[in-house]
Specification:
This protein has 781 residues and is an alpha/beta fold. Strands 10-11-12-8-13-14 form a 6-stranded mixed β-sheet, sandwiched between helices. Strand 10, helix 14 and strand 11 form a beta-alpha-beta unit. It is extended, with a radius of gyration of 47 Å. The two termini are 75 Å apart.
Length: 781
């Protein structure tokens, strides 16, 4: 990937944002070296790495990368016999500990789909023994501890003894000869303990002068009595330094023996930090993992420029590489064309670098061998080139290298020269690049290029929307609609007189006016289509909801149908058994009165037999099936009362679909069934008198829910009473009353009404997916 494109598209700013997300100097180093890859497999691997880390970041889990430093320089020095400092040794120990913490963190994750991270941590060697050895010699402040060796402990013990003896002798001077001292303190000069003696008492104290004050009135003297002790102290301190050096040499040799393992640990930790820095940057940008291809196909929904704040940037849909390979964005300046161009280029570079892109899920990006761009005013003062010459020099270089694996971005193609020649040159350049099957996105303000996309295969026009009401660009990209001039509309909004504008319109060529009219029509058609699409999508969602509700009710009905039949039979059997007992009792009573009647015994037996035979058979299996063959011959009409034999339910004929099928309504369901599955119960009555009990008007088939939100209390109750009457006529078993939460007055009114209504079996609050306490669900008798 050429360096120029990284500079032109400001890829360095993405690197800076990525660098700020890294937790260690190792991760920052890798972030600073990031460049787009041009190999498909490498890009796919990078995206999978970022996605694994992003999965953990989305779970709000923080990987412990604290304490890890870049110890590679120290490892090299120790390997060639160098002695590491205490700080360097401590960094090695902390990095070992940090690596072990990372390893443990990933091992303890419950998520199974983390193959890359789990493979990486297998390469981390714990090295607990080396860490403990370092920590047993050096404390957290980088000081070699007394327990590092027995010899060091003895030396430091003698040092403390010498220091105490020196202080005792010097303190006797401060007590007994304070008048000879400038100040009664003990201080140090040239690493030796001294006293501040007045100049005139120099001879009285005696000893070695190590320093004097700026005025010369105070001498810092080492009394003779402590000279030998100071010498012994210095000798002990020298021994201490030699022992510390020996300990550090031993530690350095020990570290060097694990150079390979430590270097591998650092390499793995750097990669893990780099993965998580990419994931955290994606979370900050609200980015998504793109699907990667190598066939030049780009598809982004609601893509945003990654360097513009989220609350300011306008998202756009972009697609190229399937139905067309080139996009020509036309329209006036300051409309956002260049921003759109840079956004596509920068997202491509990010995707090829393993970064997620700021767009919705489901985006797809291509891997290009080269990304070329001619953007902005890059005239060369040193070479004495004009703006046009500078652009053409760049374009000539691009045409020499471009092929089918290239993405080319042209900003204001052909500008900086005569408009007619510039437009012609722009079309010729586009033809050449398009003919090589490269992916091309070009911006221009030349009106001649508005028809370019209609006259070329694989090319589509686009524009950036402009609001003539506010006189501001909306920055929305409109694919398929070329940009149109808004000069007349803007002039009118700014107050230019109408007759001047009309005269100007008359001076515009016929072809130009036709093109502007066509563009305006396309813009209106696209906006209308988007609005209709949104409405259709809402209707589709509502239809899906209703279909799922009906399917759920139908499954519930089928599941409980047999149980209902069985319960009904059991209930009927109990009633008949009770009736038989009562009949038997009556027969016995009459038998006792036989002597007073003329009836014979066989007549009573015959009467009892007739009573038993008169009992109906309630078993579903023994029910006499209707003669469907003869019934199927009879034609049905809308309004006829029927029985749907497959579910044993009554209903009404709505319409005849064909000779074999009818549309019928059974309860709340409208279904299309065969004639053979219908039994006629009654024809539609043709009467001239007005029905008294039931009137079926246009509102007979009412909805299964009533929305009372926003209604006044009295009107809402009246509407609810009428709705329940309609529901009873429609035969619905269950309906929903939407009253909202609010103050609760309307909900209480609804509940009071349903409690006293004789045809409402029960009422309950809606469940979570039904609207909760803002809905009351009624079961109708």
């Amino acid at each position: 990937m050429n360096e120029r494109i990284l500079r032109v598209l400001e890829f360095k700013k993405i690197i800076e944002q990525l660098n700020s997300q890294a937790a260690t100097t190792l991760g920052k180093d890798l972030a600073s070296q990031l460049k787009p890859s041009t190999e498909l497999n490498a890009v796919v691997q990078l995206q999978q790495e970022t996605d694994e880390a992003a999965h953990i970041v989305r779970l709000n889990k923080v990987i412990p990368l604290g304490g890890i430093t870049d110890i590679r320089g120290s490892l090299k020095r120790s390997a060639i016999g160098g002695i590491l400092s205490t700080e360097e040794c401590l960094d090695v120990a902390n990095t070992i500990y940090g690596g072990r913490q990372v390893k443990s963190f990933i091992e303890n994750l419950e998520e199974e789909n983390l193959p890359i991270l789990r493979e990486l941590i297998e390469r981390i060697t714990p090295l607990r023994e080396l860490e403990q050895h370092i920590k047993s010699c050096i404390d957290d402040h980088g000081h070699v501890m007394d327990n590092a060796s027995a010899k060091l402990r003895g030396i430091r013990s003698s040092i403390r003894t010498y220091e105490n003896r020196i202080r005792e002798k010097l303190e006797s001077y401060t007590r007994n000869n304070s008048n000879m001292l400038s100040d009664a303190i003990i201080t140090i000069r040239n690493d030796r303990y001294v006293l501040p003696v007045k100049q005139e008492h120099r001879g009285a104290i005696g000893g070695i002068v190590h320093d004097q004050s700026s005025s010369g009135q105070t001498l810092f003297m080492e009394p003779k009595a402590v000279v030998d002790l100071n010498n012994q102290l210095h000798e002990a301190i020298s021994k201490e330094q030699l022992e510390i050096e020996r300990i550090l040499r031993e530690l350095s040799e020990h570290i060097a023996s694990f150079e390979h393992d430590l270097y591998e640990n650092v390499t793995v930790l750097a990669k893990i930090d780099f993965m998580f820095s990419r994931a955290k940057l994606g979370q900050q940008m609200k980015a998504a993992k793109p699907k990667i291809n190598d066939n030049g196909y780009i598809k982004m929904q609601q893509a945003r420029h990654p360097l513009i704040p989220i609350d300011e940037v306008v998202a756009n849909d972009v697609e190229i590489g399937k139905d067309y390979t080139s996009i020509v964005i036309t329209g006036p300046n300051t409309g956002g064309k260049t921003v759109t161009l840079k956004m596509i280029g920068l997202c491509t570079l990010m995707a090829q670098s393993g970064l997620q892109i700021p767009a919705l899920d489901g985006c797809e990006m291509a891997v290009f061998k080269e990304v070329f761009a001619d953007i902005g005013d890059e005239q060369s003062i040193e070479q004495n080139l004009s703006t046009f010459s500078s652009h053409m020099t760049n374009i000539v270089d691009i045409i020499k290298k471009v092929d089918y694996q290239s993405l080319v971005l042209f900003d204001e193609l052909g500008s900086g020269t005569d408009p007619q020649e510039g437009a012609a040159l722009a079309m010729s350049i586009l033809d050449e690049v398009v003919s090589r099957d490269a992916r091309v996105i070009a911006t221009t303000h030349y009106p001649e290029l508005k028809a370019y996309g209609y006259n070329r295969e694989n090319v589509v026009n686009a524009s950036v929307e402009f609001n003539v009401e506010t006189l501001q660009p909306t920055y929305r990209l409109l694919i398929g609609v070329p940009g149109r001039s808004n000069a007349f509309e803007i002039s009118k909004r700014l107050g230019l007189e109408s007759h001047i504008i009309e005269r100007a319109k008359g001076l515009v060529g016929v072809d130009s006016k036709s093109v502007e009219t066509m563009i305006a029509s396309l813009e209106k058609s696209q906006l209308d289509a988007e609005k209709e699409y949104e409405e259709a999508h809402e209707i589709l969602l509502e239809s899906e909801r209703i279909r799922n509700e009906i399917a759920k009710e139908w499954m519930h009905f089928k599941k409980n149908r047999e149980d209902l039949y069985k319960k009904a039979e059991e209930k009927a059997e109990k009633a008949l058994a009770k009736a038989r007992e009562e009949a038997e009792f009556i027969v016995n009573e009459i038998r006792q009165m036989k002597s007073n009647t003329a009836l014979k015994e066989h007549e009573w037996i015959e009467a009892k037999k007739m009573l038993e035979e008169a009992q109906p058979d309630l078993s579903k299996k023994k029910q006499k099936q209707p003669d469907t063959k003869s019934a199927a011959k009879e034609d049905l009409k809308p309004g006829d009362e029927i029985k749907l034999l497959t579910v044993n339910q009554k209903g009404e004929v709505l319409e005849k679909v064909n000779d074999q099928e009818y549309m019928v309504q059974v309860g709340i369901m409208k279904v299309k069934v065969k004639r053979s599955d219908l039994q006629l119960l009654g024809k539609q009555k043709q009467t001239n008198h007005k029905p008294v009990a039931t009137i079926k008007g246009s509102n007979y088939h009412v909805k299964t829910e009533l929305d009372l939100r926003g209604e006044r209390y009295e009107e809402a109750i009246q509407k609810l009473e009428k709705y329940i009457d309609d529901v009873l006529l429609a035969g619905y078993p269950k309906v929903s009353i939407i009253h909202g939460k609010g103050t609760g007055a309307l909900r209480k009114g609804v509940q009071d009404l349903v409690k006293r209504h004789p045809h409402i079996a029960s009422a309950r609050a809606g469940e979570g997916n039904e609207g909760g306490s803002g809905v009351t669900v009624l079961e109708i008798r």
